[in-house]
Backbone:
């Protein structure tokens, strides 16, 4: 099991969960989102990488704003 | 009439009104107001996805980014590092290169931190972004931004969300006169006539959010702004009459029956 910090919250994941799988779980795959993992932006071509313990991940999207 | 188009960062637009998508009661209202405004560009913010609510509707479900240009904005950033992070993430989301930079300096006035704004502009231009920059109504700072490659200068009319209208028309005019890139009045516009004044000063466009979203009837106000911007632009292009200190009769003085 991997414990990561996702959008500021502690989340436990099954072993060998990829970014793609995680996005699928949150119904965000193929939506307009961007991923930052440990401070680095991850392009969608690299969503197959596995998340590991203590990873810090951010998923962002567009919201209404001025 | 020859077509009068707005060109920013290599893109061409018919509408000179840019609208924000914040502060509306619902996404439905946001959508209806945007459609009524006939704007071709909307500003959007970048925030964390709410991972606790998988069914929460998304802005993109209501406003299709393929049909209307999303202008990612760094609203809420108080330093260059955060602003750059947001815009790089935004670029990742959809390849957006045309962005709006806003680096704030003070929570009470939301005035820009111009030092951080200028530094961010430099970096973003180097990275290939087309940057529209929120700035003070200061012609010297505006010139610096243009020299560093800003794609549009966006001076404030008055503090963000204040609705106080254009406080320094003379400065806005000076900025417009000296700029070779579009000047778009951003922030502080309170009502439709304020937008007309901005356009009559020769500005290339206006950005409105609160004045529409916080009006009593946002959809009608969106239409009012659409018309106000067109009127102001036409009035500017037509060229106003000269001001006189005394009356000049409108009817001929010859042939008066006496």
Residues:
């Amino acid at each position: 099991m991997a414990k990561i910090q996702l959008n500021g919250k502690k989340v436990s994941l099954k072993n060998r969960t990829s970014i793609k799988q995680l996005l699928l779980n949150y119904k965000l795959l193929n939506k307009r989102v961007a991923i930052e993992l440990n401070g680095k932006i991850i392009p969608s071509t690299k969503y197959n990488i596995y998340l590991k313990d203590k990873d810090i991940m951010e998923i962002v999207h567009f919201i209404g704003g001025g | 009439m020859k077509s009068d188009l707005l060109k920013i960062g290599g893109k061409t637009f018919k509408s000179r009104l840019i609208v924000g998508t914040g502060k509306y009661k619902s996404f439905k209202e946001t959508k209806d107001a945007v459609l009524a405004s006939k704007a071709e560009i909307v500003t959007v913010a970048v925030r964390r996805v709410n991972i606790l609510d998988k069914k929460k509707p998304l802005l993109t479900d209501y406003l299709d980014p393929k049909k209307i240009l999303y202008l990612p904005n760094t609203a809420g950033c108080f330093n260059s590092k955060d602003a750059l992070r947001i815009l790089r993430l935004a670029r990742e989301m959809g390849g957006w290169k045309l962005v709006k930079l806003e680096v704030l300096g003070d929570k009470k006035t939301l005035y820009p931190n111009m030092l951080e704004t200028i530094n961010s502009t430099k970096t973003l231009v180097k990275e290939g972004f087309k940057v529209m920059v929120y700035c003070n109504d200061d012609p010297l700072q505006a010139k610096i931004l243009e020299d560093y490659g800003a794609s549009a200068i966006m001076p404030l009319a008055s503090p963000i969300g204040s609705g106080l209208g254009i406080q320094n028309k003379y400065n806005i005019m000076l900025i417009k006169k000296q700029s070779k890139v579009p000047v778009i009045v951003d922030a502080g516009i309170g009502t439709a006539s304020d937008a007309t004044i901005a356009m009559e000063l020769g500005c290339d466009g206006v950005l409105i959010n609160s004045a529409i979203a916080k009006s009593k009837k946002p959809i009608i106000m969106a239409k009012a702004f659409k018309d106000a911007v067109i009127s102001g632009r036409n009035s500017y292009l037509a060229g106003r009459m000269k001001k006189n200190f005394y009356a000049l009769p409108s009817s001929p003085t010859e042939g008066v029956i006496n």
Observations:
- Residues 2-61 of chain A form a domain with the Ubiquitin-like (UB roll) fold (CATH 3.10.20.30).
- Residues 5 and 56 of chain A are 5 Å apart (CA to CA).
- The radius of gyration of chain A is 12 Å.
